[in-house]
Design goal:
With 249 residues, the chain is mainly alpha-helical. It has 2 domains: 44 residues, no CATH class; 174 residues, Up-down Bundle (Rhomboid-like fold). The strands form 2 sheets. A two-stranded antiparallel ribbon has the order 1-2. It has a two-stranded antiparallel sheet with strand order 3-4. A hairpin with a 6-residue loop joins β1 and β2. α5 crosses α6, α6 packs antiparallel against α9 and α7 crosses α9.
Length: 249
């Protein structure tokens, strides 16, 4: 344990008691020492070192981060990422499978499991890229607002519901891919900023960009025969209907 220095010393010139932490006598100006003693062994020094030890240190800020606040991992769009990844893996798997193995080709004749598998597989690469990006983007935005369950339910209702509608309504059904799910998620997201714009507000959303993406997916049947226009239209309508109660939450 270091010794605590004396609080007062006597000036050799004038005989006055002065603090031991000064270098010159305040009464006569005589030089007492070259430098004041260190405080490392004193109670004050101990408190200062303890405060430095306990004080929190923030790590390096990430992009878009507010100082002192870390992003909440629970807000990451897990469901949207999982669905987009599943569709990407389905695109790769089409090197092994064919449309007749996993999609709707002609009347189902009781094989309704195809309605569940068809949204995850793609033959045309551009069709796959457009749909997967829309699912990741608008599914992620919806998940940040309403949580993962809403995204999963909308994907099933709009994507698989669109495929089922194509199987029932089209004369010679041919449906593969989740164009209905992508349009449904986009539509459900767009209802809220569209209502804000109608009410005279200034929504912080790019509705023009969303409309362009929706138009591209709607026109995909022109370049990808497996992209059912019926599935896309039904998914879009179901998404709009679901977006109205979601926008009021």
């Amino acid at each position: 344990m270091p010794q605590t220095p004396d609080l007062f010393v006597v000036c050799k010139n004038c005989g006055s008691e002065v603090s031991s932490y000064v270098t010159e006598c305040p009464y006569c100006g005589t030089r007492l020492r070259k430098r004041a003693p260190k405080l490392e062994g004193t109670e004050l020094g101990d408190r200062r070192r303890s405060a430095r030890t306990r004080s929190p240190r923030l790590g390096k800020l990430r992009a878009g981060e507010i100082p002192g606040i870390r992003p909440d991992a629970s807000h990451r769009p897990i469901a949207a990422i999982v669905l987009a990844t599943a569709c990407a893996l389905g695109t790769i798997a089409m090197a092994v499978f064919s449309v007749v193995d996993v999609g709707v080709v002609g009347k189902l004749h009781g094989e309704w499991w195809r309605v569940a598998t068809a949204p995850f597989f793609y033959q045309n690469l551009w069709y796959a890229v457009a749909v997967i990006l829309a699912i990741a983007l608008f599914g992620g935005l919806l998940e940040q607002r309403h949580g993962p369950i809403v995204v999963l339910v909308l994907f099933c209702v709009c994507g698989m519901g669109g495929i089922a509608a194509a199987a029932v309504l089209e004369t010679v059904p041919l449906a593969l891919g989740a164009n209905g799910a992508a349009l449904g998620l986009l539509a459900a997201w767009a209802v809220r900023p569209a209502l804000e714009l109608r009410q005279g507000g200034d929504p912080d959303a790019d509705l023009i960009g969303a409309a362009v993406i929706a138009l591209v997916i709607l026109l995909m049947p022109l370049v990808a025969t497996e992209a059912s226009p019926t599935a896309g239209a039904v998914g879009l309508i179901l998404g709009l209907l679901a977006g109205i109660p979601l926008a009021r939450r």
